[in-house]
Every structure is written in C-alpha cells, then in structure tokens.
Design a protein that fits this description.
Blueprint: E1 3-7, E2 14-18, E3 29-38, H1 40-47, E4 63-71, E5 81-85, E6 100-103, E7 108-110, H2 117-139, E8 147-150, H3 156-167, E9 171-176, H4 182-188, E10 190-195, E11 211-216, H5 220-228, E12 230-238, H6 252-257, E13 260-263, H7 271-282, H8 286-291, E14 294-297, H9 302-310, E15 317-320
Parallel strand pairs: 8-9, 8-11, 9-10, 11-12, 12-13, 14-15
Antiparallel strand pairs: 1-2, 3-4, 3-6, 3-15, 4-5, 5-7
The structure holds NADP nicotinamide-adenine-dinucleotide phosphate.
NADP nicotinamide-adenine-dinucleotide phosphate binds near residues 156, 157 and 239.
Length: about 325
C-alpha cells in the first residue's frame, strides 16, 4: 500500500493517500522511490499557480530516484538503480511524490554508480538542466576561462550552474534577489554577485558587451538585458521563466553582435544526450554536493515548501524522502 501525494482539482488540493498497488498506472517498471525533489514546475503543479497538471487526480513529482522492484521490460531488472526526470511525468503521468510508482522503461536512465539516489535527486531536473546548459554553451564555443553570467543564482538550476561553471574554471558572475546569500554563492564559486534589480529595467537594444556566456532561468526583461550585454558572438542558454515568459528584445544583439540564444530543454531531451549528461554529473567532485544547500522534507511538508518556492523564499535544493 504505497503512500502518495495526490493532487485534485478541488479543495483541499493536496492529500496524502494510501493506494493499492493495483491503482498504480499499468506500466512496465515498478520502482521503489528513495528520493524525489521539488523543482519550480513541481511548485506550480502542487500550488496550482501554473497550468502544469494536465489530468486529475495527479501524483506530482517530475523527478525520482530509486530501485526497480518488478520489471516487464528486458532493459531493467529488479534491483537496478534508476533515475527518472521529465517526459511529462508529474504533469501528464503520475510521478515521484510516492513511495512506489509504475513507469515506462523508456523514461528511466540507469543511475550511474558513483551517485547515490540522494545525490541524484540533489541534482534532479535542476542539476541535469544546469549541465545541459553548460553543454550548450561549450558546443557554441564558450572560450576557456571566460566570464559567464548566471541568473536566479540561488535557485536549483542557478546554484548548480554556478558550481559547474566555476568547477570548469569559468569566471562566474551570479545574479540574485537574495543578497543575504552572497557569501554562499561565493562558496559555490561565484566571483562577483550582482543585484537582480540591475537587470530588470527596460533594456536598450545594445549595451556595452560584458559576458561571453550566460545561463538564464528568469526570461522577461532580465533576458532582454542579458542579450543586450553579450560580447561579440556571446551565447545565452535560455532555461526558464521565473520572471516571465515574454521576451521584450530586438534583433540587434543577433544581427550586429552575432549573439546566439540557445534553447535548453530537459524534459524531452533524447535518451543518449541524457545518459551523457548524467555521466558528466556523476563525475562531479563530492565537494560540490556538500556545498549545496539542501532542505530535506517528507510528503506532508511538500505543500508548504511549494508555496515557499513560488514566493521566492527557497534556495538551493529541496529533497523529498517519501518514506519520511
Ligand atoms: N528548460 C528546462 O528544461 C527547465 C528545467 C528546469 C527548470 N526550468 C525553469 O527554470 C526556472 C528555474 O527553475 P528552478 O527549479 O531552478 O527554480 P527555483 O529553485 O525556484 O529557482 C528560481 C530562482 O529564480 C529567482 N527568482 C524567483 N522568482 C523570481 C522573479 N519573480 N523574478 C526574478 N527572479 C526570480 C530566484 O533566485 P534569486 O533569488 O537568486 O534571484 C529563485 O531562487 C523555472 O522557470 C523553471 O520552470 C526549465
């Protein structure tokens, strides 16, 4: 009888329920979940503040890591350690806020050996997306040691991007609305901290070039300002919309400076690119995991943590132990 966090389109929106194994979706692989996590998209799904949930009732949770209990797929056997991120899980299909879930084999990636389930979810979609952004910037020719701007720097994607880029010896400038976390961001490897408000005014089409690369979780005017401030042939990995989905910019950065805007998606990215990204994540030094700020909660606390995330009050990563 697995416990799950069930979301319904009624009040109360979230309830912890015990369900029968037969109520689990009819899919190939049954996984005992050791950890899940809270991403911005999960916070929108749990609070109902974004149209994330496509079908009710829904077990949210876009990520989980755990151990295969039963498998009707020849790709996985009982005892295999696996990770799931994306594919619409927690949006269209029941997800990770559960002690046990049944999912498609195609959605699973083997958990690389050095990573525990806890470490895998310390990363989760946030860490995977940060790594995919780094890969996008590298493939677009980011010069070694150059200046890279990271927005939403205390968030999940942002704080992992700061750490990964600093680990790769880039000069990381972190943009945050939480100046009280400046010291922590420096511990993660940021060399300079910028106030979020510096990037929120109406931007001119082009400003003085300052950055060779950027990872942006914010969108809106922030992304417009960043595009105007890129060096010649600079590249920006666009990841998120925490500040807005619009993009009030002009073609000037693209046609006069050759700036590249690199769309970065973690949800539908094909298996082989996921596997490569997870191999790189598994090779990160242990110190990066111990530097990460983690709040660990159980299913009962997910609702409050989601409200806090939507209010911009969380930082680092929120881990969920469904058995807690
Ligand atoms: N493309 C993909 O596949 C993908 C994958 C993961 C996430 N995302 C998107 O990336 C964004 C970040 O996700 P996350 O999981 O890292 O969320 P998160 O942990 O909540 O981090 C978001 C950060 O953005 C900043 N922020 C929050 N509200 C803001 C606002 N109104 N204006 C400006 N800055 C704001 C805050 O950082 P500071 O206080 O430090 O400024 C916050 O910590 C979300 O939009 C999410 O949907 C996309």
């Amino acid at each position: 009888m697995p416990r799950v966090l069930m979301v319904r389109d009624q009040q109360p929106r979230c309830r912890i329920e015990e369900i029968d194994d037969e109520q689990l979706p009819d899919r190939a692989v049954t996984v005992d979940i050791e950890y899940s996590d809270l991403n911005y998209k999960d916070a929108m799904a749990v609070t109902g503040k974004g149209k994330i949930v496509r079908d009710y009732p829904m077990v949210p949770g876009i990520d989980f890591a755990g151990t295969v209990r039963e498998s009707a797929s020849d790709r996985f056997a009982p005892g295999d350690r696996v990770i799931l991120t994306g594919w619409g899980v927690g949006e269209r299909y029941w997800g990770g806020y559960a002690e046990t879930m049944r999912v498609d084999a195609d959605w699973l990636v083997p958990c690389p050996d050095p990573l525990s389930s806890r470490e895998a979810m310390q990363l989760g979609t946030a860490g995977l997306t940060a790594m995919l952004s780094v890969i996008r910037l590298e493939q677009a020719g980011l010069p070694a040691g150059s200046k890279v701007l990271v927005t939403g720097a205390t968030g999940g994607v942002g704080s992992w991007a700061v750490q990964m880029l600093a680990h790769l010896d880039y000069e990381v400038h972190a943009v945050t609305g939480k100046p009280e976390q400046s010291q922590w961001l420096k511990t993660l490897g940021a060399t300079e901290i910028h106030e979020r408000t510096e990037f929120e005014s109406d931007s001119r089409p082009l400003e003085k070039g300052r950055w060779a690369g950027a990872v942006d979780s914010i969108g809106g005017k922030t992304l417009a300002n960043i595009l105007a401030q890129m060096d010649y042939r600079g590249r920006v990995a666009a990841v998120g919309l925490a500040g807005g989905a619009e993009l009030p910019t002009t073609v000037m950065p693209f046609i006069l400076r050759g700036v590249s805007l690199l769309g970065t998606d973690s949800v539908m990215i094909p298996f082989e690119q996921r596997r490569v990204a997870w191999q790189r994540l598994a090779a990160l030094p242990n110190g990066l995991f111990s530097n990460m700020h983690v709040d660990e909660i159980g299913l009962e606390q997910v609702s409050d943590a989601a409200e806090a995330m939507m209010a911009g009050k969380t930082y680092g990563r929120v881990l969920i132990d469904p058995r807690k």
